[in-house]
Design goal:
Elements lengths: L5 E4 L3 E7 L4 E6 L2 E4 L4 E3 L4 E2 L1 E3 L3 E6 L25 E4 L2 E4 L6 E8 L1 E3 L3 E7 L3 E2 L5 E2 L4 E5 L2 E3 L5 E8 L1 E3 L3 E7 L3 E2 L5 E2 L4 E4 L3 E3 L5 E8 L1 E2 L4 E7 L3 E2 L5 E2 L4 E4 L6 E2 L5 E8 L1 E3 L3 E6 L13 E5 L2 E3 L6 E8 L1 E3 L3 E7 L3 E4 L5 E4 L4 E5 L2 E3 L5 E8 L8 E6 L5 E5 L9 E3 L6 H9 L27 E4 L3 E7 L4 E6 L2 E4 L4 E3 L2 E5 L4 E7 L1 E3 L3 E10 L5 E10 L18 H17 L4 H6 L5
Antiparallel strand pairs: 1-4, 2-3, 2-5, 2-6, 7-10, 8-9, 8-11, 12-17, 13-16, 13-18, 14-15, 19-24, 20-23, 20-25, 21-22, 26-31, 27-30, 27-32, 28-29, 33-36, 34-35, 34-37, 38-43, 39-42, 39-44, 40-41, 45-46, 45-47, 48-51, 49-50, 49-52, 49-55, 53-54, 56-57
Length: 593
Amino acid sequence: MAAESIIRIPPYHFIHVLDQNSNVTRVEVGPRTYIRQENERIVFAPVKMVMVPPLHYCIILNPVARGTDGAVQLDAVGQVRLRHADLEIRLAQDPFPVYPGEEIQQGVTPLQIVLPDTALHLKALLDFEDAHTSKYVAGDEWLFEGPGTYIPRKEVEVVQTIQATVIRPNQAIRLQARKECEDREGKKRVTGEEWLVKRVGAYLPGVFEQVVDTVDAYILTDKKALHLRATKTFRDSRDVTRKTGEEWLITMADTEAHIPDVYEEVLGVVDITTLNSCQYCVVCDPVGADGKPQLGQKKVIKGEISFFLQPGEWLEKGIQDIYILSEEQGLLLRALRPFEDTNEDGEEVTHKPGDRWLIQGPLEYVPPVEVEVLERRHSIPLAENEGIYVRDIKTGKVRAVIGYTYMLSQDEELWEKELPPKVEALLSIGRDPVVDRSRESSEGGGEVLRDRTRAVTYRVPHNAAVQVYDYKERKSRVVFGPELVLLGPDEQFTVLSLSGGRPKRPHARRALCLLLGPDFCTDVVTIETADHARLQLQLAYNWHFEIPPVADVSRLFSVLDFVGDACKTLASRIRGAVAAVTFDDFHKNSNRL
């Protein structure tokens, strides 16, 4: 092509011609037939002009300089003048050639269509003034909101495309300001500030607004409440000032659905507390009329009621049942603080801290916060031969109550009577002393545990006696059977320690009652005759007690081991009589001896 002399340039085509004398390149535009001179060279074959259709654009690097009339400017040597390192965005126009030095940085590209609820985030690279006389400084940022067609400029950079966020019912978006700005509602926001937008629909964030999160509402019911805490001092949606760290509840009475504010922290969901007509509870640290918890205070709430525990409140011992007392029941109470009450006669009574008193049924009782329930008491039914030991906690005096139904007073308590281990063992065996008189004490029986607060009883069999000693009065009494013995608080049984076995061994068995006879005992005695013959005799003795006058009945228990003493005395006499005779004489006259 460079060697051809005649170049035919079709319509809307162009070529570059280099004048080798002046080293200047010029443009020849068709339609025409160009005759090349000897000092000229065709740079390239005819090329089609650049055609930019409607709604398209292209970017030219190092564009030619034009005058006010649009004509291309030339320098002194006839070379086209270029705006080096500059850009020119050319929109839809007639086909145009590319001048020497110009470069197509971006080919023909469709213009960007910005849809509704969409925007372009634009940033100024250079200072400029647009057609609406708006002045922009390098670094300025703004939005081009749709619907519309964006016409690019060389001074403007498209940072990103922003889509609107759809806000559904019971939903909000959380925004944060990247710089100081005004939001969509005209409120000034400082850098880093956060706020909520609750308006249902599509929301297009501003140029300096950033969507942090989507917040869903908490749906409240009659049985659920929302526990919130303020992370910063602010005014909430109900125009109430909340201080940092303050906690409160949102219930269905306030709103059916709550969207937490940016400075509200959700601590949890609180269930409702429901009391029926037979229940009550004690609320510790209750919230007062000023909305602040009264630390150290308590409040009693009686059913039938439903309520939410406010932040800081807690239940002491949970939900409790109301004390329902029958005629045979009572409550022992103690005052924790000064307390005024009404007695059974309707008179006002003032109780001081530490006072104890007893209330009896039938009634329903809910203890106030000034009163502590020590215990529930029941009437103790006692038959004619039953009793209990009662101790007065003020005086320390112990007494026995026998034969009628009794309820302890506020100053009384049940007292446990201690017995010696030997007596406990004999009472717990529970065998008939008449049948048991020939058994060894080591032969045990079924033991029965004793209620130590109950009066100690012992059934004295027929023709037997039991001695009871009163350590307080220092007197003893003897009870003859058949009789039932009830021990007083300071009384103890006299324990008999009898010999047993063959030959007799001391302390072989123990007994509480003394059998009066007639009865017998058997013993084995070793004797020695005058001629030193050793013999063993088995002897049996009949015995009975002669009951002395009433004034001297205690003489029956003057000897604790009458069996051993009697057997020893008789054995001594027999040994003395046999020691004086020979074996033959003893053998012939044993009955006489």
